[in-house]
Structure formats: C-alpha cells, structure tokens
Amino acid sequence: MNEFSLLLLAFIIYLLAMVTGFISLLRPVARMRKISYYLGLGGFVLHSLSLTMRTVQSGRAPFTTMYESVSFLAWSCVLAVIIFERKFRLEKTGPYLWLVVVALMALTSSPALPRDITPLVPALQSYWLWLHVSVTLLGEAFLAVAFVASLLYILTPEKKFSQPDHEARRQKLDQVAYRAVAIGFPLFTMGALVFGMIWASKAWGRYWGWDPKEVWSLITWLFYALYLHTRLVYGWKGKKSALIAVLGFLAALFTFFGVNYLLSGLHSYG
Amino acid sequence: MPSGAWKFLASVRLAIALLILIIILAIIGTLIPQEQSPDFYRKHLPGLSALILFLNLDHLYRSPLFLSPVFLFMLNLIFCSLQQFPAKFRRLRNRDKTIPDTGSNLLEPRDRNRLERWLEEDRLQLVTIFKKLRYRVRLVRTDDEKIFLARKGLPGLFGPELVHLGLIIIIAGGLISAIFSQRISIALMEGQAEKIPGKNFSLRLDSFTTEYYPDGSVKDWKSLVSVLENGQVRLQKTIEVNHPLKYDRLNFFQMSYGQDWDSAVLELEIRLPEGQVRTSSLKTGETISLEEGTRIRTLSFIPDFQLDSSGQAYSRSAEAVNPAALVEIVQGNHQVFLGWVFYRQPENNRFQRTSQSGLKVNLKSFTAPTFSVLEASSDPGANLVWVGSGLLLLGLLASFYLPYKEVRLGHRAGNPPWLLVYARKQGEAFRREVYNILGLKSKNT
Ligand code: HEM
Description:
By secondary structure, chain A is mainly alpha-helical. Chain A folds into 2 domains: 1-119; 145-270, no CATH class. Chain A has 8 helices and no strands. Chain A has helices at residues 3-26, 30-58, 66-87, 93-109, 127-155, 165-203, 212-232, 238-262. The longest helix of chain A has 39 residues, at 165-203. In chain A, 52% of the residues are buried. The longest helix of chain B is centred in the first third of the chain and has 30 residues, at 64-93. Bound molecules: protoporphyrin IX containing FE (HEM).
C-alpha cells in the first residue's frame, strides 16, 4: 500500500469519526462517542504511517509542498483532538473539529495539490525546517481547536428555556477555547516566531525582514496576545473573547494559504 | 513623573489599544507593496500614491508611523513590569505574614472553628495533605501567632514578567538592529581576494561549485573561502546556503552567483569557402589573425539572446539559455562576415551578413569565469533578540504550565483566623478546591 492510499483510508475513517460524532451529539449515547474516538485513533495511526512513508521515500521533512503541509496540519489537528478528548472531553466541539479535519483531508487529497516529490531548493535544506514547520503547525492545530470552540460559542444562542445545562455547555466551550490557546500560543510563538527567526538568520542573514509571511505570523500572534490580555486582565469572556480567537485563527489561515497565493515574498515556495 | 502619566503608561488599556493599532498598521503594510520607487506607486496605485508617499506607507515598517507605537509599546511593557514586579516579589518574600492586599475574613463561625483546628491538633494532617499535593509547605508557630503557608509553581508567578522582559529585550534588539546592522555584498571570482571594509582581513574565493539534482535543478551552491590576515590563511571554510561563515563579528552568507560574461572565452569554428575548417579560441573583444590578411573578432557575447521591440539585441537573463556571439571577419580592409552565431542553433543565420558564400562561423563552446556573491552582515542587535526569545519561551512555559498557587492560613491570639487563597489564574476554581480540601462551608465570599 502506498503513502497516498493510506492517506485516503485515513480520510475515510476520519469521515466516519465525524459522522458518528455528530450522531452522538443528536442522541447522547456514550457508546457512539467512544466509537467516534476510537475511529479517530485508528485513522490517526494510518495517517501517521502515511506521513512516515512519505518521509522515508522523499528523504526529507514531510511538509515542503502544499500537499504535505496540509496533510501534516490535518494530522496535527487530529492529535490535538485526541489530546483534548482525553483530557477535557470536547463534547460539542468534537464533531465540528472532525469537520475541519475532513475538510483539510479533502483539500490535501484533491488533485489541485500536486503530490510529486520535487527537489528541495537550497534554502529549505536545513534541520530548522523540521523544527520551524512542525512546531508551528502543531501550535496552529491547537489554535484550530480554540477557533472551532469559539465559533460554536458565538453561534450558540444565549438562552434556551428549560435547559439548565445549556449555560454550562457554553461555559465549557469558552473553557476549551482558552485551554487550547494556552497550549497553542506557546507552541506557535516558539515554532513560527522564534524558530522562524533563527532559521531566517541562518538562511538569509537576517532574523526579521518584514516579509509578508513574517508579518502575518506576527499579526496572528498579536491577536492571541490580545485574547490573553483582554481575558486575564479585563476578565473578558464569552463573545468578545471568542471573536478575537476566531479572528486570530483567520489570520493564521491567511498566513498559511493566503500569503502564498495572494501576496508575494520570499516564502512563496510552499 | 506625575502619577497619572505613570498609570497611563503602565495600563493594560494602553497595551490593548496599541496591540490593535499595531495589528492594523501591520496589515496595511502587507497590502501595499513595500520599498518600491515613488513612480511605482504613481503608476500602479494612482489614486492612493499621494497618501502612501505622504504617510511613508511605502516603507511603513521603518517609518515613524509604525515605529512610534512600537516604541510606546516597549515603554508600556517596561512600566507595566515595573508596576507588577514589586507586588509579586513581596508575595514571594513574605512568608510569615498576612499579605495586605487580599483576603477573606468573612468566614462563618463554623468555618472559623475548623480553621483553628487545622492550625492546632490537625496541623500535621494539614501539612501531609498539601505535601501530597506537591506544595511547598511552611508552618510557623510562635507564642501568639500560627501561620501555615503552602504554595507551588513559583516560576509561574513570574511567568508573565519573564515574557514581558523577554519582549522588551527583543524589541530593544530589533531597534538596535534597525539602526546599526550593516550588510555588504561581495562578488568574488575564483582566486580573487578582497579586503573587507572596516576590518583587517580579506576574503578569498578558492572555488565555487554548483551542485545539481538529477533533474537539473540546483541542489546547492558552495563557496570555498579562505580568510586572510596579513597575507596568511587563518581559516578555510565552505559557505553554503543555511551554513554561513562567522568571523570577527561578521556573518558571511551565500547569496547568489553569476558568470562574468564580458570575460567569456569562446571557441569558434570557421568554415572557409574553400572547405577548410579552423577552430579558434578567443575572448570577447579580442581579435586574432587566421592567415594572411584575415582577422576574426568577437564584438560581444550575450548569454540569453533576445531582440527587443526596436530590434536591438539584449540578454533576457544572466543564465546561458540562448547564448550568442557577435562575430566579425575582415579580409584586408574588407568585412566579409558580420553576424550573430548561436550556440544551440548553428543553422540559424538570420542575423548574419556575408560577402563570401560558403563562409560559416559556428559557436562551438564557451566558458566564462564564475563569481560567487557573498553577503557580509553584522547585526549587533541579534544576540539581544536571542536572549529575549529564550526568556520569552521560558516565561510562556512558566505562565501556562506551572500555575502559581498559594494557600495561607493564620491565627493570631485573640483574633479570628484568616485564610488567603490565591492562584494567578482560575482563582475562583482554586478557592472552591481549597475550601473543599479544608472542609469549609462558606461558598461565596
Ligand atoms: C505582544 C505583547 C505581549 C505578550 C505576548 C504578552 C504575554 C503575556 C502572557 C503570556 C501573559 C500570561 C497570560 C496567562 O497566564 O494567561 C501575560 C500576562 C500579563 N500581561 Fe502581557 N504580554 C504582552 C504585552 C503586555 C503589555 C504591553 C502589558 C502592559 C500593560 C501587559 C500586561 C500584562 C499583565 C498585567 C498580565 C497579567 C500578569 C499576571 O497575571 O500576573 N502585557 N502577558
């Protein structure tokens, strides 16, 4: 079985995990949630195998083309989902996160992203590539968790009569978002900004050059600094907080996709 | 300084306003192409060019419009830290006393009794409970006062301070880099040495090689260089992309390479009308004599031949994509051949004129000396940025993963006991947890 068939298989299993997840939301049966979780775990194992095979075949980091990066981002999201499910129980956020994973898998396996192994340009031949991209995407996966939880928070109407646990569930969304930022923010800071600066200083002789990709990473990061401070110091919670987390993740998405296609710069291999 | 100004500079309100402002400015800077000539903006953004040039949006990130909020942000961080730090330090130092700022003395009588017991007969159990929860525990008993202190996650208390200190250092390093960093670019031919301005050493390029992948794309550029001091080799090293040379506070990077086409050496094959074939090597601009009265000269060499709209030949790139040489052959005072000869298309004689049918010139091969372009940079701010980044990461780790928690319990003879529960984050949840552990009833204080 080749790397791509494994990826497709993982894709299908993630799809099933999503479907069972949504079913468990409609009819809160504990067994459905468990099935969804174990399906996700199984897909994760296959996906990891796929990434490993790709790495062995190409002999380099599995995130140097769009196809590889999107696949790795999806894999990181699955990892984040599994960790959060185990530690905090995602409840409502879970199936919607699977939706994000499924969307990423659809993108990566679509013919729009070429799957050839093309030679690495000299600037990408560095072990900082490994550290920089993997830690950044891992961080972004947790920020994706915060994004989904925050979006759900915003979209969940404030009061529904005769549902006493309704408010508790909204609180939970808010909590999940904060905890995800608490993991994603340090990872993103380390991967995108610090490792990025170190690598840039080795490859281009300057640690910061206001390249659009650099600036958009900074913008993303500043959004989360805003999120933390309005929350910690002003006690912002709920809607306003959630809105910042959503904007922050949109900025991260733009850094990932938009800058490559819409703005020009040194990072435009990608 | 008036206390109003101090308060303003230390306020989180200002921090939030500045964060929003910096985000907006940073976005604007990515939408408007940076560092172009004024004419570029007049041509491509005619409606906005006046505004762009007036506000310096063409070099936004080094303009006062951007740098002033960044500078203010750094002041904000400094004042904020100056304000936060002493209170936290007091909390750390103060082990045997009440901390004045917070407290909950509004306990119900039943809970007061419970606390008194915790400090008396149950005190060993209290210590054990908190030790098990991995707190550092301290119990002080004097004649008229008993104090219990349990805490953990000390680094977490100062996490934000470390983060902010790291940021102050990074911004300071960035400003120093912006003002003092220097870059010069040095093009060296193989064997050529050049003195580095402002330093007492020279750099010599010993060899330059390009490595290719099987499919022909570039894998790496390598410059083997020697550092020379007073004519002596101090050091030899290969500089490649991602592997700069560090020497005397300068970093040398492989930036690009090229070939000096003006010094190209061409091998020309000349077929004379009589059927003779002669091969000659000559440099661009050089004239050599073939036989009695016949001279051949190359007037120019173009690596990537193209004609512009007015019919002028020019080189589209610096790569040898479509090499061509302009060759002239003269017999006596008579020009018998003038035209472009192509390397890849020897039959192409569209751009040739000859008065002797059968006279043919063919460009058999060409070589040109390669030069490597290295960039030397000195950046006195970089080390500050690395130190700041280290503190920033440590601070984030402490802030988010080592949450500070503290429980203080005290009783002075003749007074009701007091209880202080403090966590830097999630304070309410922690208070409930401690009340549970201590078996207290009071839920809302
Ligand atoms: C981009 C810039 C900044 C970053 C990345 C940053 C980062 C942080 C982080 C990670 C925390 C801890 C958050 C948590 O534990 O949830 C924090 C707390 C805090 N920050 Fe910032 N900060 C920045 C700028 C500022 C500025 C300019 C101020 C000045 C007013 C400020 C004031 C505070 C305060 C008062 C706290 C709470 C301290 C505490 O809980 O003890 N921050 N900051």
